[in-house]
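Dear U.,

For the methods section draft, I wanted the exact inputs and outputs in one place so we can describe them consistently. I've listed the two proteins in the order they'll appear in the manuscript figures. Please don't edit the token lines directly; just add comments below if something needs changing.

First protein:
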Amino acid sequence: MTTTETAPDPTLATLLRIADALERIAPPRRKDADLKAADAFVWQAVGSELVPVPKVNRVALSLLRGVDRVRDTLGENTERFAKGLPANNVLLWGARGMGKSSLVKAVHADTNLCLAKDALPLKLIEIHREDIESLPALMSLLRNDPHRAIVFCDDLSFDGDDTSYKSLKAVLDGGVEGRPDNVVFYATSNRRHLLPRDMMDNERSTSINPGEAIEEKVSLSDRFGLWLGFHKCSQDEYLEMINGYAGHFGLDVAPEELRRDALEWSTTRGSRSGRTAWQYIQDLAGRLGKKLEG
């Protein structure tokens, strides 16, 4: 080393190494939401990213039978929201397999078809149950976007000591910022109050003040302005679903044979529901060698 050269500063070198290490372990920069990329998205909590869904797995609204009242109510609420008018958060609860999540997706598609040509399309964003705690981050991402969006959680419920419901409560009705005006929250659940009955009974029996003990958790469902109940379908409603699917997909089967086979299918499974009807139609189409398209 010549006399004109200076020795490297060891402190500076250490700081540079620390900066490099921190940069490598830092989480990636959150991407800006591009809601023009698709009409439906899935929220990825890891990375805070909206992943576009090119083709949504949905059933045509006309094929959903036996749910006329809740269909109309949900449709009217969604249409008002898409037009920029006041609308409610919605809880669709009740019997399994009766088309709760299918109805949300079908109403979303139907609403977009009915919008004016110059209107921005309504977006559908699915958030998984295990990512509910990241809901405030999603709301922050959507707050200043010009599009209106339905944030949708399928099969929402809470068990045991799960406290993630507090994030949902803050977004639906509380917090300093509250829910953005351009967002509504739709959820499906098999439970009306989003809690198992034995958990609620246990809270009542072991607390000094049973009413106050469960009030915080039960009040979550009160944040939904609309409660839409789905009940087990009758035999006639089940057969109406079967006939609707068979006609739509052009499955050529004699009416009496179709009726007999469909009832036998439901009896062997011990249930009548939209899901059971769809499973029978898939089996029937397979036996007939016909693809279910359109």
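Second protein (the one for the lower panel):
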Amino acid sequence: MSQYYYLVSGLPDISPDDAKLGLGYTDYLDELMQSLSRHDAHLLSYFRMDYENRNLLAWLKDKEAALHPLGQLTAEDFQEQLQLIDFEERGPLPGVPPYFLTFLRERAEGLIAEGQEENRLTALFYEYVSHCSNAFVREWFAFSQTLNNLLLALSCRKYGWDVESQLVGDSEIVQQLRTSTARDFGLSQLFPQTEAVLRLSEEEDLLEREKKTDRIKWDFLDELSSTCYFSVEVLLVYLIKLQSLERWMELDPRSGEEKFRALIASMKSTVQTQAK
């Protein structure tokens, strides 16, 4: 296992309350790409998949759409892969995650319900990352999936929305979120952060709720990496935290509030569309 003494020791300290960063997310990502071993550098691809997913969905909707620069796949890559989906013997093109091929085939066969493309692509990503050889990566994304689903289930319960259309995946925890009427959905033993999430869901200030959600993530990351010192896991924790901080610094209170109100409105619109 590679050790990165110089990289880790040179990282500027960061905290959830920082108002200024000495290192940008993109610059740090570039530094990692150049400094990590080939095996460890491959792990970074999992943390860029959100951009790849967004770019694919944007391209499918509009072939001229501008793609996010942190995604590495191009419109030409998407077009070439789409042209090959009818060839069952062909695997994904180099650099294209295999779940993209599954998604494109399901989409072509009409197996994805209207309005559910993003949900299905995200579910396929979580299934894909669950097979990663690195335990930290697997556990972080499993935690993220459960946290996001629990927050969605609580919103659905609060607003009376159909939970089926919102949750991502089909795990035991997802099934409990779909069927349980218990206050904690029966998850307190399976997901230790359940009570903290239940408390923050009562927060009326959407920005404050989001910040508290990020603190839950930071606490989990600190616990998950508590026995790591100079390994790639420490660098990945820093990457996740840096992205979180940079996102907050790009938002002023008004735009942040508008963003989260728009998210709620979007969820409501999706549910109404599927009910018709």
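Candidate sentences for the figure legend, describing the second protein: Residues 5-10+21-275 form one domain. Residues 22 and 251 are 18 Å apart (CA to CA).

Thanks,
Y.
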